[in-house]
Amino acid sequence: MRMRDHGWNVFGGLFMCIAFASAYYAEGGFETKSGVTMTYDYDRIDEVKKACGFVLNDASELKPDDNRIYSIKQELSFLNGDWWQESNGAPLMPFDSRDQPEVSLDEQSPLHLTSFWVTDVDRAHKSKKSVSVNGFLQMGITLENLFMDKPDERNPHFDIWPGHSQLLVSFQGIYTESKENDGERVMCLLGETMLPARHLDPSDPWEWVRVSGYTNQPPLLQDDQVLLVLRYPKKISLTNRAVRGSMKSQHLKSNPKFFDEVHISSWLGMSAEYEFGSEKLVSKACSPYPYKDNAVNSGIDIYKGVNFCSILDRFTRGESFTIVPNWRCNGTDAFCTKLGPFMSSKEIKDTDGSFKNVRLALQDLRCEKETLLGNVNSNRVSAVFRAIPPLENKFTATQRTGLDNLTLSAEGIWKSSSGQLCMVGCLGFVDTEGRSCDSRICLYVPLSFSIKQRSIIVGTISSIKANNGSYFPLSFEKLIRPAELWNQYAASHPSYSYSKIDSAGILLEKNEPFSFGTRIKKSLLKFPKLEGTESRLESLSLLSEDLTLQVSAFPDPVPRSLPQKTNIQLDILSLGSLFGRYWSSRNNTRAEDEAPYHAKAEYTEKQLLLNVSAQLGIDGKSYHNFSMIFLEGLYNPLVGKMYLIGCRDVRATWKILFDSMDLEAGLDCLVEVVVSYPPTTARWLVNPTAKISISSQRNEDDPLYFSPVKLQTTPIMYRRQREDIFSRQGVEGILRVLTLSVAIACVLSQLFYINDNVESVPYISLVMLGIQAIGYSLPLVTGVEALFQKKASESYESTSYDFETSQWVRAIDYTVKILVLVAFSLTLRLCQKVYRSRVRLLSRSPDEPHRVPSDNRVIIGTLIVHIFGYVSVLIIHFVNKNQKPIQNTQYTDSTRNHILSAWETELEEYAGLVQDLFLFPQVLANIMWQINCRPLRKFYFIGMTVVRLLPHIYDSLRSPEPNPYFPEEYEFVNPNLDFYSKVGDIAIPFLAVLLAFAVYVQQRWNYEKLSQALTFGQFKLLPSRSQVYERLPSISYESELVSTATRDPVQKKDHEDE
User: Fold this and answer.
1) SS3 of residue 466 by DSSP
2) CA distance 911 to 822
3) Per-residue model confidence (pLDDT) at position 806
């Protein structure tokens, strides 16, 4: 009940948070979806006007017919602006930098972000110069968070936790329009909040932050004397875009509530209209148009269609450009390492001109279409370019709106006659005269691609000043992704030009020599290939999906120490005549490509080779020198291999790049890559993992040389195999049904057997039956699979969801559960019959209980043996673990909700061994009881042994799937554990067969004969015969059974119920 109440409390809290976060704003109040309207007070307006007298003195009279008053709430709110504070000994808020993972504050500076919302406008009581407003400010210091959603304004307060601090301030104020600065719009507001209290020592004002538990009750001071002044441009333009703000304390410096002045910077959102009109500045950068630059080679086609702005917006929204290294720069270190016109921070300078992980975001894109003479389409374009340091979160940076020395406000023109977007850029805050507008930006959208041109957007930022100013022209690009090739852009028919096919052919001949094994592989195994579809383009597109990889990988061969996780992303850009992906809605005029593929003539082996281009990204600490590899070559569908020549995006220093004379467009194209795919057939027998081999063709003393890289992915699944009922899971499901059916048949056979051999029933070991019953009951209680544990891995889960939820798999799962229940019930029935037979035997000779078989010593002996075995396993595991490099391996249970410790993992593995050796208690009991009968039917103990051996046989035959990140895939054989191995897959079945043979011999020979056979001179393996468990004469036992006919009806009925 407590857990249920707790769950409802958590659910209720989440529901309240969602309700507040998704609330909408109505004119005159804040209305939640529940219909509760929040009213706003203006009880401090007189106090506001007194504090804002300097604003009212410069205010002009508001025109009665001015509609801008009605748009104040929508236009004058802003999100994620910047704030900074003068450092005079009175900081506004603390920041807790403790417990920050991996990156320290010395490398990554926290962001100072602020958002402001106009929550109400009181138009009913406006004066000649002002209108009363309510507002809410959220500001803070954070590493990666954003202030996108307005919090509950009824509770202005301060929050802090490691890595994040925020202050909420509620304001009342006035809106005015100034006589100066071209009629700028001004809001002056007086706010109240709970300020964090500073310590008296100015050298350590936030001493309380280091105290444990401060987040629950930080020391706060209530303050209602916070003055905020925000200044907005009347019309947004290139030279007048910024929102500027100032927040001051009205207290004296001696007051503990006083804080140093806070400055705010932002720009307005898309609801505010932009005014194009900076032709003079634009012509300064772009006249004559188009400007001649070196961003695009003459052989590249450029997009010149009417949808330029929509394409640019789709490719840049929430995205960022890659900065190209200054590989052509030949100058001083300061000149070649400078990030264009932007102010370079220490982390940018440390890249030494390679600009690794430095990005460039395009924000606040606005377009205005024009039509010129001669049907030439033209767009006036405005945007903000923001440089993103290497360690700053890329998504967070694209949402920021503050202007500083890492931003360029830009405006320019684009014409369809050339396809060039030429803009003038203004650094940071721009004055009305545009004195900081000394940068030129040229941007293109290419339509033709090659191994050296993989960018869907390319551009440069250069200086307008003579001799290129103080920096080398900065190049940027956005790499293409196949998923983006649709809509208006795809309608322009982008194309790919192959140039490395001959080199790839040489690589193919070197890696695929003629051999008998290769011939057998080609004839028996099938690999991804073109399928018979409505068109060849559709078939190529489906094959591209199968060849695309987005999966985890690890070194090949797998090292003994657990390697760090590496992510692989291999995108197929073009395959044969197809570029990107095929969409049925697209019209293609090539009749040959549209013809049904299966109707074409037969191809020779050479004709089956397909030209392919791709790009490979490797994300892992061990592969930091592989930023991106552009690939081009051949795919052989007969062996499932791609032979590729790679051009590596090198992120070395500008000096190394300049000195490397054999670079092609700044890329290292002396790279060979071979990608091997698993077959589509015999998936449960062949390892379903891809292998990637990367090697450099440079000399080892070359600074761009790298050691060969060999990677193996986690299991992958092709498109068709997601629906293939004969996939591994389907096969394992069928095997579970078959093995459980055989087990049920064995138990039924034993039940029928004891009906005809009642005298041997007491000599069946209950410990043996109990082990089997527990083995069946665990799946019913915990939900895990019986006999064959369901194999689960990241790759399977992410790619086979539809397959796992199919009706076929559900039917198998339900069938398995029913069969487990039947096997469990029959085993319990067998236990019941054995127990009752012993009760009857004891009732026949109550004075001789020692002559009735008992499992007391059997269970003690079994426990001793298995405890000793389990402890031995732990000792061996501990010794081997100390001899190996440290591994931070974690194992989870079947639900993956509980992390298992080492001893729990070994115990789970050992439990499987106990079930495999289920005959051990019977062998031990036969020795203790010195039997002269046959309690177990041969079909029962041999059949059950085969059932327990089948998973081991399957584990030996199936593909090993060496996946070190998900060891729970392995039911009996876990290569990451010391106890089970391929040797164990041989030893455990051998022991199980040996036990079955021992039971067979014990039942075939009587105890005396067996004891004589195992006597070697004076040495006896078995003890002398005892009278303890000597059976009573059979006739007497049978007489007892017959005597039941004379019992009373109730007793007779009880006996018959057995």
Assistant:
1) helix
2) 22
3) 60
Whole-Å CA distances, 434 to 405, 406, 411: 15, 17, 12
Can you tell me whether residue 837 is helix, strand or coil?
helix
- In contact, 724 and 701? CB cutoff 8 Å: no
SS3 string of 624-678?
CCCCCEEEEEEEECCCCEEEEEEEEECCCCHHHHHHCCCCECCEEEEEEEEEECC
Share of the chain above pLDDT 70, in %: 76
Q: For residue 410, which amino acid is it? A: A
Backbone angles phi, psi at 453, to 5 degrees: -135, 95
CA angle 345, 89, 55 (to 5 degrees): 90
Residues 6+ apart with CB under 8 A from 972: 909, 912, 951, 952, 955, 980, 984, 985, 988
Higher pLDDT, 686 or 884: 686
Q: What share of the chain is helix, strand, coil (3-state, %, to 5)?
A: 35, 25, 40
User: Which residues on adjacent β-strands are paired with residue 567?
Assistant: 552, 619
Measured distance between the N- and C-terminal CA atoms of the chain, rounded to whole angstroms? 42
Token reading at 1053: 């009925």
Collapse the DSSP code of 503 into the 3-class scheme (helix H, G, I; strand E, B; otherwise coil) and give the result.
Answer: helix
The distance between the two most distant Cα atoms of the chain, rounded to a whole number of Å, is 124
Q: Which residue from 950, 835, 1002, 968 is spatially nearest to 891, judged by alpha carbons?
A: 968
User: 409 phi and psi, to 5 degrees?
Assistant: -80, 130
Q: What gap in Å lies between CA 651 and CA 355, rounded to an integer?
A: 7
Which residue shows structure tokens 């062998």?
923
Half-sphere exposure in the Cβ direction for 363 (13 Å, CA): 28
Q: Dig out the tokens for 977 from the structure.
A: 């554990």
Instruction: Indicate the SS3 state at residue 388.
Output: strand
3-state secondary structure of 1035: helix
pLDDT score of 192: 95
Residue 521: the pLDDT is: 66
Identity of the residue numbered 554: F
Query: Sign of torsion, CA 371 374 377 380?
Result: negative
Strands 158-161 and 131-142, bridge-based pairing? unpaired
- Rounded mean pLDDT, 920-945: 87
The C-alpha atoms of residue 984 and residue 979 are separated, in whole angstroms, by: 7
Question: Higher pLDDT residue, 648 or 297?
Answer: 648
Residue in this structure with the two tokens 């440390």, named with its chain if needed: 350
Beta strands in 326-444 (DSSP E): 359-371, 377-388, 407-415, 421-427, 439-444
Beta bridge partner(s), residue 557: none
Both tokens of 1032, joined, read: 């009573």
Amino acid residing at 812: I
